[in-house]
Design goal:
By secondary structure, the protein is α/β, with parallel strands linked by helices. The protein folds into three domains: 94 residues, D-Maltodextrin-Binding Protein, domain 2 (3-Layer(aba) Sandwich), CATH 3.40.190; 79 residues, 3-Layer(aba) Sandwich (D-Maltodextrin-Binding Protein, domain 2); 95 residues, ACT domain (Alpha-Beta Plaits, 2-Layer Sandwich). It is built from nine helices and 15 strands. Strands 1, 2, 3, 4, 5 and 11 form a six-stranded mixed β-sheet that branches. Helix 5 packs parallel to helix 6 and helix 8 runs antiparallel to helix 9. This is prephenate dehydratase.
């Protein structure tokens, strides 16, 4: 049976690229209009997997995804799906337009996160009075420029995949400030997916496992509660690789902490989680999954 995958659409987005990296092209894709729709698709089992953006090496958190993980897993009945894999996509932005010269551009479309990733290009190449318009995705930006026709007054900052999809000329390639700019994506599902281009034996060769958890603390009544939790990981030799927080939406100034660590749910990781349970109001394991080779 063909695997069905939901992702933040439309086709041609960097999330679509993450889908191809994880599953290849021999899957049924269901582009969604919002990240929240991806969560609904996987929860209702309309699809086998959902791929959502999680963080960017330049801009940091994709807060929409963090907040959705909080809303789906904290203070509610925990869903059956988990984080089962990750993908890293190198983000190379391109300037797509029918214009013959950049001086004739009046409007540029792109995703809101893109502007800060191409600030040097914009300051050096684009006139100050050019209107910059936020759209839902870089692929949508390309679609809009395509629909406006070849009058040469609009442009999109988007991917090469979108340029190919909408047959738009690329005036400038790889205009990102940081050539190592990368976005990390999470794969949500019920079972571990096989990495495209590998077999079961090669999968077993992977060593690093990432475990992702969320928890809330009663900071007001337990001074140093976060410190007490973190020291448990240290004492058990668990390497924490990321700590982030978002408002809990339960009460003002209470936060949900997102912590990722190297190790699967055994040995030091499991011992640490058992030890911190008394300190936590809620503790949820989002998933344990193979570290993508593209991380290195």
């Amino acid at each position: 049976m063909t695997i069905k995958v939901a992702f933040l659409g439309p086709e041609g987005t960097y999330t679509h690229q993450a889908v191809i990296q994880q599953f290849g092209n021999d899957v049924t894709i269901l582009p969604q209009k919002a990240i929240s729709d991806c969560f609904k698709c996987i929860d209702s089992k309309q699809v086998d997997y959902a791929v959502v953006p999680f963080e960017n090496s330049t801009n940091g958190q994709v807060v929409f995804t963090y907040d959705l993980l909080r809303d789906w897993f904290i203070n509610t009945t925990e869903p059956e799906f988990k984080v089962v894999a990750e993908q890293f996509v190198s983000i190379h932005h391109n300037f797509l337009t029918y214009a013959k010269d950049i001086g004739s551009i009046k409007t540029i479309y792109s995703h809101p996160q893109v502007w800060t990733q191409v600030s040097k290009f914009l300051s050096e190449k684009v006139k100050a009075d050019v209107v910059k318009i936020d759209v839902g995705s870089t692929s949508k930006a390309a679609e809009i420029v395509k629909s406006e026709g070849s009058d040469g007054t609009s442009a999109a900052i988007s991917s090469k995949m979108s340029a190919d999809l909408y047959e738009l000329p690329i005036m400038y390639e790889s205009i990102e400030d940081n050539v190592s700019n990368t976005t990390r994506f999470l794969v949500l599902g019920y079972n571990k997916p096989l990495q495209h281009g590998t077999n079961e034996e090669e999968e077993e060769e992977e060593e690093d496992i990432v475990t992702s958890v969320m928890f809330t603390l009663n900071n007001s009544e337990n001074p140093g509660a976060l410190c007490d939790v973190l020291v448990r990981f240290k004492s058990n030799g668990v390497n924490l690789i990321s700590i982030n927080s978002r408002p809990s939406h339960v009460k003002p100034w209470q936060y949900v902490f997102f912590v990722e660590m190297i190790g699967d749910l055994q040995d030091g990781v499991n011992t640490s989680l058992e030890q911190i349970k008394p300190n936590c109001l809620e503790l949820v394991v989002l998933g344990s999954f193979k570290r993508s080779w593209r991380y290195y």
